[in-house]
Automatic annotation (TrEMBL):
Protein name: Lysosomal alpha-glucosidase
Protein species of origin: Calypte anna (Anna's hummingbird)
One of the record's GO molecular function terms: carbohydrate binding
UniProt KW keywords: Glycoprotein, Glycosidase, Hydrolase
Tagged with keyword Glycoprotein: yes
């Protein structure tokens, strides 16, 4: 399906799609530069429709107008043009005529990708080798499936992971956390999991519990379990290094076994994170995985958590490099530093020269979150014997096998709510379907209107969690006016009614790499009007979500692709020629449309996924113009390991 031509002068390769003659790669346009710490290769692009290359904040469709995207894991509030928490050197390209291809550069070093209006693209990395994978589609869904055949298909999440999660930084005690849970139950608002941020720890140290404020945490967790709910808490990779010897096992034992990142002098590198001075666990060392498991086992015996939230794993450091800075040399001061925030590889992280078991941090930095997620998922399996639930901030290709992702420390602003959609869809491309943003915004103060609209959008994030920062007023559904609270409750009940459909989409993601939250152009690749759409999205191929993303309106304009679409709530028909339509959107309404020819399995919603799964099922059948429809349902016990692989499931086609 392709031809490859090699050219000696000018030096390069040309890759052509045989069916259309489209040139997908042409690297003869600029010289190849191949030095130890500077590798550069350029190509012409067949169109300007380029997606992927994370993690960044911006529109789904990239601008090729001389923009440079840097890839180097960094702890910073999502801001346009900055390199953010994860690194994903993969792009998807839509060609003229609707074909698609993808390119993956398997390289973990700091890099930048320069986009040019030619249209063209330059890869520039400062280590490793040029190891390209090319996926020929020819349909965008197939490109992403092919990419995941290389990096691995995502893990099947437990059903409860798809329920509503509630969290904040600044619950002042376990009793205050408990009050929120009880208020949610009191109003009969669906909730599957309650979370805690670093407040629960003693002095912000991993694997500890504040003996005053969080004494009742074991009882709270027991109460959650009794009500079919789950508990998730935060963990950071920085381990406090200043406790008296013998008083903090995680550090003492990690030191004894040699499990931390070391300086070039062979001593643990000391930075600063929440607990003060910290050493950093080296997850490239298999022995660290065992130590991590032992720490989690002893904490779980006291607080039987169900899932883990791994944060600060870029790794984040409140100082640049270490308390002693970084040594001179070509790792910390390479001949060329990509355009990273802070203009230095050690900005707000550890020294690139730091030694790890497998290599130097220079090569492993972008892999840190992936390696920690692998250790964490493995520990959860050994402790609970069930499907692990992990949400990670830093990510790298194949992350989806071990964890989901949230989009980091966003703000309570309308534009942040909009940017969450391209963020969500980009991570669908990266093979991490379990993704969402902090609903109602993390930092800053939300408003009732913003939070209501965001809860409506967030109810359709594959991973739906409302999270808030400390010293801000509460923003969980129980604190708002009866009208807003009811609107939030209603949209969560709508989500819960669709859990059989959503769970089946995750099964298809796990089985063959289908996306869950999906850009419109994936289903309508021939329709050029869909190529830049990122204010709407689909669940699977058939449920269209059109959220309100601005204040003070009671209607929303959205694109409805050609064909018949049914209003989710009323069944009324929209026959579209492929056009922008104005839809009524009062504050208590989220527009949802079902595509013709679809059958959606639904269930009468309860206030947890456990209650919901015992309720009657029903089908919503949206007939096509030729009076046909198709749908499917994957169903198992919702939490056992490898149910598909072991044949303990039901799969029905309607």
């Amino acid at each position: 399906i392709y031809s490859l031509d090699f050219s000696r002068d000018p030096f390069g390769v040309q890759l052509r799609r045989r069916a259309t003659g489209t040139v997908l790669l042409n690297t003869t346009v600029a010289p190849l530069i191949f030095a130890d710490q500077f590798l550069q290769i350029s190509t012409l692009l067949p169109s300007q429709f380029l997606y992927g290359l994370g993690e960044h904040r911006g529109t789904l469709l990239h601008s090729l107008d001389w923009s440079t995207l840097s890839l180097w894991a960094r702890d910073v509030s999502p801001t346009e043009s900055f390199n953010l928490y994860g690194a994903h050197p993969f792009y998807l390209m839509m060609e003229e005529g609707g074909d698609a291809h993808g390119i993956f550069l398997l390289n973990s070093n700091a890099m930048e990708v320069a986009l040019q209006p030619a249209p063209g693209l330059t890869w520039r990395t400062i280590g490793g080798v040029l190891d390209f994978y090319i996926f020929l589609g020819p349909d965008p869904n197939m490109v992403i499936q092919q990419y995941q055949q290389v990096i691995g298909f995502p893990a099947m999440p437990p059903l409860w992971a798809l329920g509503f999660h509630l969290c904040r930084w600044g619950y002042r005690s376990s009793n205050e956390t408990w009050q929120t849970v009880k208020a949610m139950r009191n109003y009969q608002i669906p909730q599957d999991a309650q979370w805690n941020d670093i407040d629960y720890m003693d002095g912000y140290r991993d694997f500890t519990l504040d003996p005053q404020k969080f004494t009742s945490l074991p009882s709270l967790v027991e109460d959650l379990h009794k009500h079919g709910q789950r508990y998730v808490m935060i963990l950071d990779p920085g381990i406090s290094s200043t406790r008296p010897h013998g008083s903090y096992w995680p550090f003492d034992e990690g030191l004894r076994r040699g499990l931390f990142l070391n300086t070039t002098q062979g001593q643990p590198l000391i930075g600063q994170v929440w607990p003060g001075s910290t050493a950093f666990a080296d997850f490239s060392n298999p022995d660290t995985h065992q130590w991590w498991l032992e720490n989690l086992q002893s904490f779980h015996a006291h607080v039987p958590f169900d899932g883990l939230w791994i944060d600060m794993n870029e790794p984040s450091n409140f100082m640049d490099g270490s308390k002693d800075g970084c040594p001179p040399g070509e790792l910390d001061s390479p001949p060329y530093t990509p355009a990273v925030l802070g203009d230095s590889l050690s900005a707000k992280t550890v020294c690139a020269s730091a030694k790890q078991k497998v290599s130097v941090h220079y090569n492993l930095h972008n892999l840190y979150g992936l390696m920690e997620a692998k250790a964490t998922a493995s520990a959860l399996i050994q402790i609970r014997g069930k499907r692990p639930f992990v949400i990670s901030r830093s990510t790298f290709p194949s992350q989806g096998r071990y964890s989901g992702h949230w989009l980091g420390d966003n703000r309570s602003q309308w534009k942040d709510m909009y940017y969450s959609i391209p963020g969500l869809l980009s991570f669908s491309l990266f093979g991490i379907p379990l993704v969402g943003a902090d609903i109602c915004g993390f930092s800053g103060s939300t408003s009732e209107e913003l939070c209501t609209r965001w809860m409506q959008l967030g109810a359709f994030y594959p991973f739906a969690r409302n999270h808030n920062t400390q010293n801000e007023k509460a923003q969980d559904p129980t604190v708002f006016s009866p009208a807003a609270r009811t609107a939030m409750k209603d949209v969560l009940l709508t989500r819960y009614s669709l859990l059989p459909f959503l769970y089946t989409l995750f099964h298809r993601a796990h089985l063959q790499g289908d996306t869950v939250a999906r850009p419109l152009f994936f289903e309508f690749p021939q329709d050029a009007a869909t190529l830049a759409l990122d204010r709407q999205f689909l669940w699977g191929r058939s449920l269209l979500v059109t959220p309100v993303l601005e204040p003070g309106v009671d209607s929303v304009t959205g694109y409805v692709p050609r064909g018949l679409w049914y209003d989710f709530y009323t069944g009324s028909l929209v026959n579209s020629s492929g056009e922008m339509l104005k839809m009524s959107a009062p504050l208590d309404h989220l527009n949802l449309h079902i595509r013709e020819g679809a059958i959606l399995p639904t269930q009468k919603p309860g206030i947890t996924s456990e209650v919901t799964r015992g309720n009657p099922l029903r089908l919503i059948v949206a007939l096509s113009s030729s009076a046909t429809a198709w749908g499917d349902l994957f169903w198992d016990d919702g939490e056992s390991l490898d149910t598909f692989e072991q044949g303990s499931y039901s799969y029905l086609v309607f």
